[in-house]
Design a protein that fits this description.
- The protein is mainly alpha-helical.
- It has one helix spanning about 1-84.
Length: about 80
């Protein structure tokens, strides 16, 4: 009789622990998923900023090049006017 009671208690304990463990695993999974989403979002935001800044740098290079061309044209005009 003692063995049956102990066996029933052990089975009951095992079943109850499994349910609690499953709940904890589900909660931990949700928490990890939330953390991963936050990290991905922040990384995406940082990447967008870097991409935007590189686009700005490319545009500035174009602007600087065009400005340099204009300055050179102006300098050539000044030199030609001085020669005349």
């Amino acid at each position: 009789m003692k063995k049956i009671i102990l066996l029933a208690a052990l089975i009951t304990f095992t079943i109850s622990c499994k349910e609690e463990t499953k709940e904890k695993v589900e909660e931990a999974t949700k928490a990890v998923a939330t953390d991963v989403k936050e990290v991905v979002d922040s990384t995406a935001t940082k990447a967008k900023k870097i991409i935007d800044s590189s686009k700005v740098k490319e545009k500035m290079k174009d602007v600087v090049a065009k400005t340099a061309e204009k300055v050179e044209e102006g300098a050539k005009k000044v030199q030609e006017s001085v020669k005349k």
